[in-house]
Design goal:
By secondary structure, this protein is an alpha+beta fold. It has 23 helices and 17 strands. α16 runs antiparallel to α19. The radius of gyration is 25 Å and the shape is globular. 51% of the residues are buried.
């Protein structure tokens, strides 16, 4: 059989997760619906406000017993992008042409092609795809491509020599990873159909045909799977590779702005220790490929800021100061849709992962198999899709039974499907928890943007949080259901869709699927006590104390004080360096950099008293501080990829053809837990500029 290595053996710098809540169950998930519409489960969240979470420790089901101590030891590892050891020697020097020698396109080997592919060649127009797991489609090349940045770590993992990327030898690399399939003969290229479900509700309205048969990879084209030098499987996908049958009438392109955001965010998330798709390269068109996109007029920001309110506004007279501050923040951060059309240069970021299998993939074939009148063909396509997902993400489940795991026509047992669901549910919990730990909001966490392997993907309307807000989200369409603290609920709703889709393959059917959803919800809640415990530097035995400190002291304080989420946790460790008899002023001084200036609660006597009460109560829980500061600084990053940083990077690239800011941010975020040089601290270890909290395209986006 072909060599295959589970991604569970990858050098992953440590997954931290957040479970759902310290309160009773917040989410009524997996409501059974028995009807002809086949919606076996639908999520009906009972509360969509502040699903207060707690860090969990752990990786996947088989490592669950290792617990928090495993997490802390794993996090002592440098979470930059270097692998543990150099790749083994190949028979020939690694090169981009060598990808074809190590190609192993399991998606196209295991799964069914769209039977109408040839009749609709070249498959670059929107159409219905009624069966099959993929459509063969060639990407549309960029003209005069130039590689502007790449990940050295991903080059190593793919077995590509850096000499094949840099001038004067980089032309072939730039051509292939900008859509010119002929640059590396022997590679398959394809796009896939999948379904859309939002908060557990299955949708077809986003499909131009109203059937769900026109939804899928609209501008993402896979350009091959390869086995790396150490046996790891990697699929490569061009984001912005041109139109496909699922483009829904759009141009299939990505622009430089969005491509810079995706490249940097993917690699930053990896360095933070949160599972994610990776970025290999960013290639820009130098040949005039452009696209028109709606965006924000800076003049409109000035008009919006002209109307403002302050603490002494007579309209706020009847409110206490903490409520006044929240009203002012909400007023200042009102979102709006784009108001101008701009022309932007096209670019492509190549994203790489062991698999891009989405819940939406299984959702689509689950719907078809459960539809009235479905036959064996639809059930076979569902079975194949689930088996392939197991092969790609949790191959140990297949390897535990007789037969070749790498057999697309092999069977999958009900027990294997159940094990897959449990593993997937725990993985999804882990990644959502990682987002909460580092202050990240995915923004559009539908089931089609949720990988079954629990990996961050689809860096679109994402954002790292500046000032703490439990309902933070960058996207104007996120609503409260995709907001920062509600992401665990969205993840659980997505998992309920996965379980419902797999129900026909389970021995106990819908009842067993629902029981698995309830189990995953329970697993999330059992890990709640570890959420803030790890960020607060407390021991495993102090789960209850950590939950009390966060729920009743720290979280309400952060919400009312206009405090920077990243800085307040990072600076909190500095409070441990002070003696027990430190004055209140001295005790709180390390936290001063975390407070935003307008409205600044730090110098309000009532607020300072509450913060002092929290800090002293927290310090009282410490049984000595030896190693605590170091442990906290390994889970609370100094740097996250704030939106104002990204704006500086893509603005310099677009306006001045200057990629130096992009390169600087790439280096900065490779070691996010280290403060770095004085120069980097002065530039980036800081709160967001006031304008970044209000400006369209920075504070919010569409």
């Amino acid at each position: 059989s072909r060599p295959h290595r589970s991604r569970r053996g990858m050098n992953h710098p440590g997954a931290v997760g957040v479970s759902v809540t310290t309160r009773p169950v917040l989410f009524a998930v997996a409501r059974t619906l028995r009807g002809r519409d086949s919606r076996a489960f639908a999520s009906t969240p009972a509360r969509l406000l502040q699903s207060r979470g707690h860090l969990i420790v752990g990786a996947r089901a088989r490592r669950l017993a290792a617990g928090p101590s495993m997490f802390l030891s794993r996090f002592t590892k440098n979470s930059a992008t270097d692998v543990d050891a150099p790749p083994r020697e190949m028979d020939a020097a690694p090169s981009v042409l060598g990808l074809a020698d190590r190609a192993d396109h399991s998606w196209t080997r295991h799964l069914n092609p769209d039977p109408d592919t040839d009749a609709n060649a070249p498959n670059r127009k929107s159409r219905q795809v009624k069966s099959g797991h993929y459509v063969r489609v060639d990407p549309t090349p960029l003209r005069q491509p130039e590689t502007v940045i790449y990940s050295p770590d991903m080059l190593k993992r793919l077995g590509i020599d850096e000499a094949d990327v840099k001038a004067p030898n980089g032309e072939r690399f730039a051509r292939f990873f900008s859509g010119d399939k002929s640059a590396v003969p022997g590679m398959d290229t394809w796009a896939t159909p999948y379904a859309l479900s939002i908060m557990g509700q299955r949708q077809v309205s986003n499909c131009p045909f109203g059937t769900g048969n026109g939804y899928g990879d609209g501008r993402a084209v896979s350009v091959g799977e390869v086995l790396g030098p150490d046996g790891e499987r990697w699929e490569m996908q061009l984001k912005g590779g041109g139109p496909t049958p699922f483009c829904r009438g759009a141009d299939g392109r990505a622009v430089l702005r969005s491509s810079i955001r995706e490249f940097l965010a993917s690699e930053a998330m990896h360095a933070l220790g949160v599972d994610t798709t990776r970025a290999l390269s960013l290639v820009v068109s130098r040949g005039g490929d452009v696209a028109r996109r709606p965006w924000y007029d800076p003049g409109a920001d000035k008009d919006a800021s002209a109307e403002s309110i302050s603490m002494d506004d007579p309209r706020l007279a009847r409110y206490p100061d903490d409520v006044k501050r929240q009203i002012i923040r909400q007023f200042a951060s009102q979102k709006r849709d784009p108001d101008v059309m701009i022309v932007e240069t096209c670019a492509i970021t190549t994203r790489v992962a062991p698999s891009f299998t989405r819940i939406g993939h299984i959702d689509l074939f689950g719907r078809r198999a459960q539809r009235a009148g479905a036959g064996t063909a639809q059930m076979d396509e569902l079975r194949k899709m689930v088996r392939h997902a197991i092969f790609r993400e949790f191959p140990e489940i297949l390897e535990s039974s007789a037969g070749d795991a790498d057999d697309g026509d092999g069977d999958v047992t009900p027990e294997q499907v159940a094990a897959f669901l449990v593993s997937s549910g725990l993985a999804i919990a882990d990644v959502v928890c990682g987002w909460l730990r580092v202050g990240f909001c995915q923004g559009n966490f539908n089931a089609d943007n949720c990988l079954v392997g629990g990996r961050t993907m689809d860096y679109g309307p994402f954002g790292w949080m500046d000032a703490y807000d439990p309902l933070f989200a960058k996207w104007t369409g996120s609503g409260e259901h995709f907001a920062f603290m509600n992401q665990p609920g969205a993840g659980l709703a997505n998992f309920a869709v996965l379980a419902a889709s797999c129900a026909p393959l389970l021995k106990g059917g819908e009842d067993e699927a629902q029981a698995i959803v309830q189990r995953i919800q329970g697993e999330m809640e059992s890990k709640v006590a570890d959420v803030w415990r790890v960020k607060l530097g407390l021991r495993e035995s102090q789960r209850a104390a950590a939950a009390k400190l966060f729920d009743y002291k720290l979280e309400p304080l952060m919400r009312e004080s206009n405090v920077d989420y990243t800085l307040v946790f990072r600076q909190l460790a500095e409070c441990l360096k002070l003696p027990d008899d430190a004055s209140d002023d001295d005790l709180l001084e390390p936290l001063a950099p975390a407070f935003y200036d307008s409205p600044n609660a730090f110098y309000d006597d009532g607020t300072r008293a509450k913060w002092c009460d929290f800090v002293r109560a927290w310090r009282d829980e410490m049984d000595g501080t030896a190693g605590t500061i170091e442990a906290m600084n390994k889970v609370n990053p100094a740097y996250v990829l704030r939106e104002w940083m990204l704006v500086e990077a893509y603005s310099a690239a677009k306006e001045n053809d200057d990629f130096s800011v992009l390169e600087e941010l790439f280096e900065l975020t490779r070691t996010p837990y280290e403060l770095g040089s004085d120069e980097m601290q002065e530039k980036y270890y800081r709160r967001a500029p006031d304008r970044a909290l209000k400006a369209g395209g920075t504070a919010f986006m569409s």
